Known about the structure:
two-stranded antiparallel ribbon, globular
Amino acid sequence: MKGIDYIQAKQRMWARSRKVQLQxxxxxxxxxxxxxxxxxxxxxxxxxxxxxxxxxxDGNEFKDGQIEIAKTKALHSSSVLCINLFHxxxxxxxxxxxxxxxxxxxxxxxxxxxxxxxxxFPIFDTARRxxxxxxxxxxxxxxxxxxxxxxxxxxxxxxxxxxGKKSHRESLSKYLHAESIxxxxxxxxxxxxxxxxxxxxxxxxxxxxxxxxxxxxxFYGKSGFRIxxxxxxxxxxxxxxxxxxxxxxxxxxxxxxxxxxxxxYQELFARFEKLYIxxxxxxxxxxxxxxx
Length: 292
């Protein structure tokens, strides 16, 4: 079974067990992978400040189009998975526990200050669109690590919508000519200039991670941030290859002493269970039933 089919089947099973009414991507057309009532796709009501952040994102994911249903009505929405996991800890004001579970800091670190969804970090001010990071947790200005950035993936690595897309080198071409933004990233730039990128990265969106690194470096400095790649693992060859590509990319970033990390949602959930199950049973049960 393909990774995306595995995820969608698991989500439909969860919805049916909850008696959630489903629809196709165009209402009565398409496979029943979308909720009718958007609230039923979320664990809890979104706080106003986070709702504002999410609505300001480039994806326009909360509104139905003339034909297409809103992306956040999709059971397999990456944004919904991200919100269902992160929003809870922000609402409880327990970002220190979240950061520890993510392996971003040790258990004694309690300086995490704010969590923001869909935060933008322009590489060039003149660009029409800027990279959006799914989650950014900021620390005080005088902290050594000023921000923890998280890029979250659900079905995207296993999606079949890759044909016709730009090659990895084409996606990075306008950045490779700007020498100043690569200061201190000699090895990463050399890797981005490789002719074999499309063969090396078939599942990992490597250019997107590079753009996030360039934007974060501009705002926080090379040593002022950590970026975490958080993805949903699937059984079989696709999952194995995606993990291999992720590890390969991180190996290249280490040559420039960048703080790039990765953890699967499954590994994160296991850490939540081990560290913070007490007092969070309902939340953990929801995540377990739906995603794991």
